[in-house]
Specification:
With 254 residues, the chain is α/β, with parallel strands linked by helices. It has 9 helices and 10 strands. The chain is globular.
């Protein structure tokens, strides 16, 4: 695996070794080796049905791999449930919007802070002092995240009032509320205009630069991928067929 420009040696935050996921007699994913370097923006590309989202699901605990191992910062998380993997420091978004339509943008972001909370359901229902303190902390963090992303004016808006691109940005902001070190974005720019894609790319680059967050991104817009990514992995029929710097992948016949 090529090191990133300016990086003396590889420093993987995520490793997937011999990860296979079968559905009956169909092998959806069969990846021998995948590395995501700490601090990188790594893209996972390939045609529809190549196994990209299935691999995301194996990494985040939504699917358990049929075989193989997934490691985060050297710790085996292969068999861990999704909520525990999230606590370990992985956040993700999904292909389809998953915002709560009955909540404001601010409240949608606050739901992303639940993993840091310690109050149980009973404490939350009766608004104990601990639960109230956690709510104040979550609201402060949500407002800070919106301000950091230049979206503070959207705090009181309902998701339905926003453009599709803005709603995608809200989902991105909610993922950041988990204080994850690795964020998986599944088609973050699907359905966006050229202007909206540029804005989202800028947000991803800024968060990586200023907060040191690592990104693994599934995206079909190849020009965007080539401009945004440090490293690209290509899947086809569940197998890795290319892995390298953007220009090397661009010139790879496979």
């Amino acid at each position: 695996v090529n090191a990133l420009p300016g990086v003396a040696k590889p420093d993987p935050i995520l490793l997937a070794d011999e990860v296979r996921r079968n559905f009956g007699g169909v092998t959806a994913v069969d990846v021998q080796h995948l590395e995501v370097q700490r601090g990188s923006i790594t893209a996972l590309i390939g045609p529809n049905g190549a196994g990209k989202t299935t691999l995301f699901n194996c990494i985040t605990g939504m699917y358990r791999p049929t075989s193989g191992q997934v490691s985060l910062r050297g710790e085996d998380i292969t068999a861990a449930p999704a909520h525990r993997i999230a606590r370990h420091g992985i956040a993700r978004t999904f292909q389809n919007l998953a915002l709560f339509g009955g909540l404001s943008v601010l409240d949608n972001l606050m739901t992303g802070a639940y993993l840091q909370g310690r109050s149980g359901l009973l404490q939350g229902a009766f608004l104990t002092p601990a639960a109230r303190a956690e709510r104040r902390a979550a609201e402060a963090a949500a407002r800070e995240t919106l301000a950091f992303l230049g979206m503070e004016e959207l705090a009181d808006a309902a998701p339905a009032e926003l453009s599709y691109g803005k709603q995608k940005q809200v989902e991105f902001a909610r993922a950041l509320m988990q204080n994850a070190r690795l964020v998986l974005l599944d088609e973050p720019m699907a359905g966006m205009s050229k202007t909206e894609k540029a804005a989202m790319s800028g947000l991803i680059q800024r968060v990586r630069r200023e907060r040191g967050i690592t990104f693994l991104i599934v995206e079909h817009d190849i020009p965007v991928v080539m401009d945004l990514s440090d490293h690209i992995v290509v899947l086809d029929f569940g197998r890795k067929i290319a892995d390298g710097l953007p220009e090397a992948v661009r010139q790879d016949p496979a």
